Amino acid sequence: MADRADPAIVWTPEYLSYKLSANHPMDPVRLDLTMALSADLGLLEGVETLRPSSATDAELLRVHTPEYVDAVKLAPRGGAVELLLAGNHGLGTEDTPIFAHMHEAGAIMAGGTIAAARAIATGRARRAVNIGGGLHHAMPDHGSGFCVYNDVAVAIAWLLDHGFDRIAYIDVDVHHGDGVQRAFVGDPRVMTVSIHQHPATLWPGTGWPAEVGMGDAEGTAVNVAVLPGTGDALWLRAFHAVVPSVVRAFKPQIIVSQCGVDSHREDPLADLALTVDGQRAAFLAMRALADECADGRWLAVGGGGYGLVRVVPRAWTHLIAAVLGREIDPAAAVPESWRRRAATLAPNVEVPVVMGDGGDVRFSRWDGGPPRAPVVTVPGVDRSERDLARLDSAIADTRRNVFPLLGLDPDDPRD
User: Fold this and answer.
1) Of 118, 98, 92, which is closest to residue 10 (Cα–Cα)?
2) Which residues form the Histone deacetylase domain (predicted)?
3) Nearest partner of 369 among 315, 320, 413, judged by Cα
4) How far apart are CA 327 and CA 79, in angstroms?
5) For residue 355, what are the CA distances in angstroms to 264, 315, 316, 322, 333?
6) How far apart are CA 52 and CA 120, in angstroms?
7) pLDDT for res 86
8) 211 phi and psi, to 5 degrees?
9) 97: exposed, middle or buried (C-beta count within 10 Å: 0-12, 13-18, 19+)?
10) 137 a catalytic residue
11) Which of 370, 113, 395 is nearest to 240 (CA)?
């Protein structure tokens, strides 16, 4: 079980250098506020934090091309040749602008997730968390979606080189985990599972249920696409209808979780409707899966989340608590010391007073068979019935595409 070794928290103030621009939505203040909230709640008392080293070029090259790493290093210098190189590699865009010390900032993020992986691989920890990680959109040869280096893929590749050959990756960010899926889409040693807003309604437009992996890895890419407006009860129904079954069938040695919290109802860049309470329930579910299926080995990273004050710090403090085994009641008060700090940083934001949103995380479990009707808008039909029907249709799409490839019955709720 996970209490055989102390959990590990990976942290360095150097993470705050990953600041893409003055007004970019992914402001590292969210990381600073998370660690401050965790400290003010007493969560970090007696816990040693691991300070990471930067990922080396050799470690980055497990996933990224030499040309791309060179472009990241050269782009901030600002010369014509350097900018041309960057333009060929997804840099210098509104989403992923060129910024000072870009390589160094990306490398320390990747180094943090490698440090978490190393702590687990060496037996120093059974669980580890790096809230600075989760940059899951970066591709081998280009940056994308705020992500310069794909720390998650780099750490998974490191684990594959250090004795692991069954790794389950679970991504609960509102956006599809496209970069990690791309990195391992043909590798049967890695299962990538992503539950995200439907690709027809949100960037990056990938993560369809029919994306199941390639060649010998068919069945190891699993995608659950939920519609805008999906809240806690339906999201959790979808998660539990798919994720535990495929993970159990895969029999991983370790679970890696990307815990983006842009699925929150207040997030400015997406359209799902989860509460902090629902996100906390997802973290606890993934921890339970690691305990059940991977001898407690759980590596958790951050990801998206652009409610910089009201959402991310509370949600990721619950994530840190889950890793430490020190759960915080969502009804617990937010410390006044933290509220004063947050109010100073964001004077126009209503600072939360408790650690949850009062969300109801009860849900009805998927009970098998075909999706219920109606699946279209019909006058006189209760909206909740329509939403449930559509959610069950999404569940059925994923199960019917991937479950037979894993030897599971797509219509049997016991699978």
Assistant:
1) 118
2) 24-322
3) 413
4) 50
5) 14, 8, 11, 14, 6
6) 14
7) 76
8) -80, 105
9) middle
10) yes
11) 395
Q: Which amino acid is at 2?
A: A
Given 137, 175, 176, 196, the catalytic residue: 137
- The residue behind tokens 């479990």 is 365
CB atoms within 10 A of CB 233: 19
Q: What is the band of 2 on the pLDDT scale with cuts at 50, 70, 90? A: very low
pTM, 2 dp: 0.96
Pairing of strands 49-50, 190-197: unpaired
* ω into 204 cis (within 30 of 0): yes
Which residue is associated with the tokens 């996100």? 279
Q: What is the mean pLDDT of residues 229-237?
A: 98
Show the 3-state SS of the chain.
Answer: CHHHCCCEEECCHHHHHCCCCCCCCCCCHHHHHHHHHHHHCCCCCCCCEECCCCCCHHHHCCCCCHHHHHHHHHHHHCCHHHHHHHHCCCCCCCCCCCCCCHHHHHHHHHHHHHHHHHHHHCCCCCEEEECCCCCCCCECCECECCECCCHHHHHHHHHHCCCCCCEEEEECCCCCCHHHHHHHCCCCCEEEEEEEECCCCCCCCCCCCCCCCCHHHCCCEEEEEECCCCEHHHHHHHHHHHHHHHHHHHCCCEEEEECCCCCECCCCCCCCEECHHHHHHHHHHHHHHHHHHCCCCEEEECCCCCCCCCCHHHHHHHHHHHHHCCCCCCCCECCHHHHHHHHHHCCCCCCCCECCCCCCCCCCCCCCCCCCCCCCCCCCCCHHHHHHHHHHHHHHHHHHHHHHHHCCCCCCCCC
**% of the chain with per-residue pLDDT over 70:** 95
Give pLDDT, residue 82: 77
Six-digit token string for 203: 């960037």
Nearest to 305 by CA among 340, 343, 259, 339: 259
